[in-house]
Design a protein that fits this description.
The chain is of the alpha+beta class and about 210 residues long. Helix content is about 20%, strand content about 45%.
Length: about 210
C-alpha cells in the first residue's frame, strides 16, 4: 500500500486544512471565527479537489464528513475512518487495511494527518487577515504560521462572503498543496453517526495490519 498511502496522505493533508477547525481553540478573526463557530456545532460534509506541486505532482478529489474529532474521507480509491481514538486506512481494491492509534501518531503531519487535526491550535498561531484572490475570485485571506517546528511552513485559507473557497498548504520541503472545496453542508450534530470501520467483519482474503 506504499504508493497509495503516499497519495492518500496528501488527500488527507489537504482535507485537514478544513477538518482542523472542528475542534481547534486557536484565536480567529472575521470569516475564520464565523466558520469555526459553525464547524464546532455541526456535522459537516463537503467535496474537494486538490493539486500538489513539488517533488511529486499529484491531483485528485474526494469527499469528507467531520464531526468533532471524528471524520471520514473518501478519495483516490482510499477510505479513511477516524473515531477520535483509532484510524483505519482502507484500500478495498487491494483488500488492505491499516489501523493506527490516533493518540500515538505523533507530530509527523505529512504522514499522520490525524495528528494535524488534533493539534492545530498547538502548531499555528493567530491568523493574519489580508485581501487576495483564489481561482480568479476576490477573497479574504487568512494566513497562518507555525509556532514551533513542523512539516508545515504556512497555511492560507480563502473566503468570499463568509464562504470557504479553498486553502493552500506549504510544506518545508517546498511542496505546495492547493485545494478547492464545494458543496459544504452544515448539518445538525448526529450523535448516532458512526466513524469507525468494522475490520472484524473482513474475511481472510484481506491483509489487516493493526498498529495499535
Amino acid at each position: 500500500m506504499t504508493r497509495n498511502r503516499i497519495k492518500i496522505s496528501v488527500v488527507l493533508l489537504s482535507a485537514a486544512a478544513l477538518l482542523f477547525l472542528s475542534h481547534s481553540d486557536a484565536k480567529a478573526a472575521g470569516p475564520v471565527e464565523s466558520f469555526l463557530q459553525k464547524m464546532n456545532s455541526s456535522l459537516v460534509e463537503f467535496t474537494y479537489s486538490f493539486s500538489t506541486k513539488g517533488n511529486m505532482t499529484i491531483k485528485g478529489d474526494g469527499k469528507a464528513t467531520v464531526q468533532g474529532d471524528s471524520f471520514f474521507v473518501d478519495g483516490n480509491g482510499m477510505e479513511i475512518y477516524c473515531d477520535g481514538k483509532s484510524r483505519w486506512t482502507v484500500d478495498s481494491y487491494s483488500k488492505e487495511a491499516i489501523i493506527e492509534d490516533v493518540s500515538e501518531v505523533g507530530q509527523d503531519f505529512l504522514t499522520n494527518p490525524a495528528a494535524f487535526l488534533s493539534s492545530f491550535d498547538k502548531v499555528f498561531g493567530e491568523p493574519k487577515m489580508s485581501k487576495g484572490t483564489f481561482s480568479g475570485k476576490s477573497a479574504d485571506v487568512a494566513s497562518f504560521l507555525p509556532i514551533g517546528k513542523s512539516n508545515v511552513s504556512s497555511m492560507k485559507m480563502f473566503f468570499a462572503q463568509g464562504e470557504l473557497l479553498g486553502a493552500e498548504l506549504s510544506l518545508v520541503d517546498g511542496s505546495v498543496t492547493e485545494f478547492k472545496v464545494s458543496g459544504m453542508n452544515f448539518l445538525p450534530v448526529d450523535k448516532e453517526k458512526v466513524f469507525s470501520f468494522k475490520d472484524k467483519d473482513l474475511d481472510s482474503s484481506w491483509v489487516v495490519t493493526d498498529l495499535r
